[in-house]
Design brief:
TIM Barrel
């Protein structure tokens, strides 16, 4: 869990995807708007190589990128044994560089680090990265027999381990900025947990998430978050052991607040709440700092009523958009980032 220096006081950061095309101009804008916790942007409108599953697929066994489908596929399992042996040779040797993300797949990562190296940072203590979560990744890849990788125990284990070591590579790269690293596991798949569309069990979700979290934690001092932009079993997310829980506070505030005991326990052991308060997919253009503040205040007041001290709540709170901004227009995303920045400043004196 975070150390005593991790007092966030409603600092703001992003989720990942953006609709912009300019690499350096976008990174500079993020450093300007979100100086405390800049994040590296995923340019999903520039290339399908930056789509969530594709971006983190390099050098994972059996996976191929289909240019036609703009997605990750498993064309054949004929060479599964040899590919898995080669994969585990690199994984067990902790060959982190083998699992790197190349510039074509994440230009925002490289551009952000280069800008910070040239002195463009505004002095914030943190930097944020993100990776596709293991459940979302494994559920989104289909084997030749039509089954999700999520239901192939041998291949699922390899994908979990692969994403864990790729996340560690990212943490080590971000650490070169001289800042403390935050990395989120993005798990939109868990929005459907508990519905007829979700065939994975609660204990399986916890075990899978814990495997990645524990690997990163064992090998680095990064803070690890889980982002889910829909409704889910938030007690399950807390139980999996992240440092940060990021939820859509604009759309699903009341559902999140249905878990008072689990949330109090999470914050009590050092956990951080990342409030996704600026809408993305349902952004209307009429949102204001005052309106978002009022909405957020209702949630904060609930927690104060639970007995959480105002100072502690402020220390353990981060602001984010509700989800990635890739589905927004450049104009609305720019306004959304400005709203986030201004709301963060307004809340700086909350305690």
């Amino acid at each position: 869990m975070p150390d005593n220096e991790s007092h966030f006081n409603f600092s703001a950061t992003g989720v990942g995807s953006v609709p912009f095309l300019g690499l350096e101009t976008t990174c500079r804008q993020i450093l300007e708007d979100l100086p405390s916790i800049p994040f590296w942007p995923q340019f999903v409108k520039r290339s399908y190589l930056e789509y969530m599953n594709v971006q983190f697929s390099e050098n994972l066994p059996l996976l191929k990128i289909s240019e036609e489908k703009e997605s990750v596929i498993i064309p054949s399992t004929e060479n599964a044994e040899s590919e898995l042996v080669r994969f585990y040779d690199h994984f067990l040797a902790k060959d982190i560089d083998y699992f790197s993300i190349s510039r074509d797949f994440a230009p925002g990562l490289y551009n952000m680090l280069e800008l910070i190296d040239r002195g463009a940072s505004k002095g914030g203590l943190f930097i944020k990265g993100q990776t596709v979560g293991p459940l979302t990744f494994a559920a989104g890849i289909i084997e030749p027999d039509g089954k999700q990788v999520l239901h192939n125990p041998e291949l699922l284990e390899a994908m979990i381990n692969g994403l864990a070591i790729k996340a560690l590579w990212q943490v080590m790269e971000l650490k070169k900025s001289g800042k403390k690293v935050i990395i989120f596991l993005d798990e939109p798949y868990l929005s459907g947990f508990g519905s007829a569309f979700s065939s994975v069990q609660r204990h399986e979700v916890i075990d899978i998430l814990r495997t990645v979290i524990n690997y990163i934690r064992k090998n680095s001092d990064a803070l690890i978050g889980i982002h889910c932009c829909g409704n889910t079993d938030w007690s399950m997310i807390a139980e999996s052991g992240p440092d940060i829980i990021n939820f859509d506070a604009f759309e699903f505030m009341e559902y999140f607040l249905l878990y008072p005991d689990e949330i109090k326990k999470f914050i009590g052991r050092g956990g951080i709440i990342a409030w996704g308060i600026v809408p993305t997919s349902n952004y209307r253009g009429t949102e204001t700092v005052e309106g978002l503040f009022s909405k957020l205040e209702k949630g904060l007041n609930h927690m104060l009523e639970w007995g959480i001290a105002p100072g502690l709540l402020a220390e353990r709170s981060i602001l984010t958009p509700a989800c990635g901004m890739g589905s927004m227009t450049p104009e609305t995303a720019k306004k959304g980032l400005e709203l986030l920045s201004h709301l963060s400043m307004k809340l700086s004196g909350f305690a």
